[in-house]
Every structure is written in structure tokens, then in C-alpha cells.
UniProtKB/TrEMBL annotation:
One of its GO terms (molecular function) is cyclic-guanylate-specific phosphodiesterase activity. This is EAL domain-containing protein. The lineage of its organism: Bacteria, Bacillati, Actinomycetota, Actinomycetes, Propionibacteriales. It comes from the Bacteria. SMART domains: EAL. Residues 1-230 form the EAL domain. InterPro entries: Cyclic-di-GMP_PDE-like (IPR050706), EAL_dom (IPR001633), EAL_sf (IPR035919). Signal peptide: none annotated. PANTHER family: BLUE LIGHT- AND TEMPERATURE-REGULATED ANTIREPRESSOR BLUF, CYCLIC DI-GMP PHOSPHODIESTERASE PDEF.
Amino acid sequence: MAFQPIYDATADRTWGYEALVRGVNGEGAGAVLAQVRPEQRYRFDQECRVKAIELASRLFPTPESLKLSINFMPNAVYEPSACLRATLRAADLHGFPLTSIMFEFTEDEKVDDTEHLTGIISEYRKRGFMTAIDDFGAGHAGLGLLVEFQPDLIKIDMAIVRGIDTEPARRAVVAGIVHIAASLDITVLAEGIETEGEYRALKTLGVHLFQGYWFARPAFEALPELRFGT
């Protein structure tokens, strides 16, 4: 696993870290996931959660004040409470607070059963976890997902924020997302930030959480130094 920081512009500090799948030779998540056969998806999903918690418990200086964001695959979760057993055991073993864990699923993965996904989110919240939609605005369901359920956080996809400082259409779309999220009491995070211009434009639009190469690149089994944005 590699870790990339999430910056809180309001508090001017690190809000948390996303745990990202990486190969031992630095291969990206796509290359690693391509090697996972369908019958291995559940086990792989579980092992990634456990490894992320194990590493974060050693790396985070104060786990109670930072969020650990873990990706999960909705279609690999067959029964929410049963699938959380390994996560709960790992958190207990390493003394990692459940309220510091956020599970995010990518909108890029087509969700075959929204009722099943709603059940997953409900069970996770019951346990004290945060939930998030990753790659928001670039996947299969878009705003339709927010009609079915409301996560704690949405991460605006980098394809939407790229060049937002020079393109009015992108600013209008993000302004609409921020307005909708505020109405539903959902926190907004912009990911894939690569320039100061993008950061400034998004901050002006009311976004307060940021992630991207402009702040820090992911570090393999380590916490990279963060460039603060103020």
C-alpha cells in the first residue's frame, strides 16, 4: 500500500491519508487489480483493508485525529456485516479507532444492485465508519447515486477539476456539485489537484478538502511530506 495525504484548507493541516494499492515494484492499482481473478475479488478486498489498517497503525502519529481512507469494491461485498469481520479484528488488534476509517467506493465500478450498496453503507455507518464516493461525476451513475443514498463525503473526479482555473464550464459544474452536497450535508473533496491555479479556483468555489500531486505524491508504505496550500 502507498499513502497520499488529504489536505484540509480550513484547518491548514493534514486531514487524513488514502491507502492506495501498489505493487512491490511500484506498479499502479490498475496493474495490480488486472491480476485479480473474479473469484479472488472478495479475498483481495479483505486483505487490502487489513494491510491498510496495519500500516496506518504504525505510520500515523495520532490515529484518532487523522482519517484513513480505504477503497472497497461493492460488488465483492456479499454480506456487509460478515465482510466487516476482518476489518474489525484488524482495528482491534492494532488499536486503530473505527471512527478514523473511511470507506470509499469508486463510481467507475458499475454497481449492479443499488439496494445492496445502500445496505453496505448503512451497515458501515452503524459501525462508526465514514463513507465516500470516489471519482464522482465520471462514472456510471452520477447524481443518481445521491438520490439513493447520501455518503458522508464525495470526491470530485480529477477529469472535472483539471484546468478548472481557466474553464468556466468546469467551474459551473463544480459549483453545482458543491451546492447540492451542502444541501445534503455531504463534505466535498477535490482530487487530482496538480497546479496552484486549480487549488485556488476550487477553494474559491467552496471546496475545503484536497488531494493530488500538487500537495504530495503517494509514498510506498510511508507518509509523504505535504505541501500546504495556504
